[in-house]
Amino acid sequence: MTRFLSLMVALLWAGLAIAQDDDRGLIIGFLEDQLSDAGRDIRIEGFRGSLTGRAEMDQLTIADDTGIWLTLRGAVLDWNQGAILSGRVEVEQLTAEELILARIPSTASSSTPDAEATPFRLPELPVSVAIAQMGIDRVDLSSSVVGEPVVLQVDGALSLASGAGAAKLSLHRTDVIEGSFTLDGAFDNQTDILRLMVALEEPENGITSRLVGIPGRPSVSASIAGEGPLDDFTADLALATDGEDRLTGQVTLGPSTFNAQLGGDVTALVLPDYQEFFGPEVSLVASGARDPDGTVTLEDLTLEAAHVALAGQAAFASSGLPLSFDISGQIKDPGGEPVLLPISDQRAFLREGRFRADYDAAAGEAWEAEINAFGLEPNDDAFFGQISLAAEGTLSPPDDTPSVTAVLDFRTTGLRLADDALQQALGEIVT
Fold this sequence. Notes:
22-stranded mixed sheet; mainly beta
């Protein structure tokens, strides 16, 4: 949809550049030259009308070095040229009959955004923009795009004036499996008020349950909703499957802070063997801050479930390197029974596990960590009575060339192996 809108907006502004020219060949050549670049070849067929009012094209294709990856058919741009004199861009129709996305292009950008935090602002254009109708009757996504063939219908509307904007977008799946995704949002630069409503609805065997890996691929319903100033914006989050709430909570964003509190019964979201590990109530709390220079401080991180607990704090420079961390946790069954670990296809059990890690660049370069595991049975061929791993070393300051040193001290006792020869060679203690 984003690529389609970019192409249609390019058509609109190209119309301003050659508004008085009726030569079809000149218009097509101008568009193809302006929209194509290295690694992207655009071809237009069946252009009709004028870019000063209503323009239509039979087909537009985009190709890279390996061939055509996007085809747009039956595109229409209908706008009011006269409104420009009053400082308005009024588009009655910005639509297409069909868009075929055969694959993700090989020239897709892999750039990452700048780490420096900047306030969110809508562009303040010299004219107001209003698109009454935009959409595509049929969007065909190949299996290489989302893992299965999908057919969608897209509708929406957009307005932007004096730094205040609103947008509506609806995606409806129309093939053998139905589903919908809707977005309704608005923001005003003057008041800093954001209104956001995002909703997803899919029946059984939908895309979301497959991509997330939810067992049984149940129906999925998810939503994010909130309204308020950006320096104190709270959004309510909800995830449900088969009509039952699984995870709910709130995320609050301040001028440079964030806070998240989520919880619920997630057992239906994991494989049956691992449901006991998480239990009927999982709680996640995270709060922190982001400085203008990109430093992120995680002031509190707490995860609690039936057989696992995690707590700690951490800070990271804009480069991603740690400034500090103090994290500890444990895995244990309250009744002392072995815990089935949700880590692999094999059935690995652990009676108890503890770990901790500490580092503070302000106090020096030293870091240390310790892991202790009791009664570990990774498979039917081995059993470890106790495993201890102690580590210490140095981390370079974040503003230096990244480097790390480590000294590891490993010890296991009570080792039992199914292979008698290997057991005799190693014994019960290995260091």
